[in-house]
């Protein structure tokens, strides 16, 4: 069995808007690079949208409608398509690449996603990777509409989304577990049919646990899958200052979010 680092810093951060959540991810990534301490973060969103690193947002969303609805949005550090948030819980995982140095990026992605399979199994579901089934593999600018080899599926339908990025010898992965989707809120924001009605969610699978219960189960599934110790922690004052600055200079800016200009 693949070995993984034994101690992780655990952060359960509060419900927040898109720019704050993405700024926290980047600051924690930098903190982990500097300290060498791996991180598992679990968190929630206000109603919001997040974009993949290379999405052409103008071609996907009606930005005037997004603004009129008062929704926050931010471009992620990772690729993938547009995600809708608010009825989901998310995680971010940061660790040195050397912790999985005998695995290729695809192998490490499959390995790390195994804790999510364990999570869904603990809920009484039967998750599988798309490539392990006779499913059509496809890509889309809308995350929930794609079907890639290591997407997790339940009853033959993709559930949630996960993405990776390698940076300065560090592996960063984050993802989302959909509990419910406010189709009425988000449907009219897309310039093309996003098929939001077809998104696989826990509620559609008759799972009605609270977000707090699901976050606890996610954490326990991580511990059980990788046999690690999680050390409860909070953001430091220095990290909070960096998050505030990064929100203002990057994740609240048109240049990064819409024009995808590196800042």
Automatic annotation (TrEMBL):
**Annotated Gene3D superfamilies:** Bira Bifunctional Protein, Domain 2 (3.30.930.10)
- State the InterPro entries in the record: aa-tRNA-synth_II/BPL/LPL, BPL_LPL_catalytic, Octanoyltrans_LipM/LipL
| Signal peptide (residue range) | none
Q: Its domain of life?
A: Bacteria
| Domain BPL/LPL catalytic span(s) in chain numbering | 34-230
Can the keyword Ligase be found in this entry's annotation? yes
User: One Pfam family of this protein, by short name?
Assistant: LplA-B_cat
- Keyword tags: Ligase
Question: Recorded GO terms, molecular function?
Answer: ligase activity
The identity of this protein, by name, is Lipoate--protein ligase family protein
Protein source organism: Sulfurimonas marina
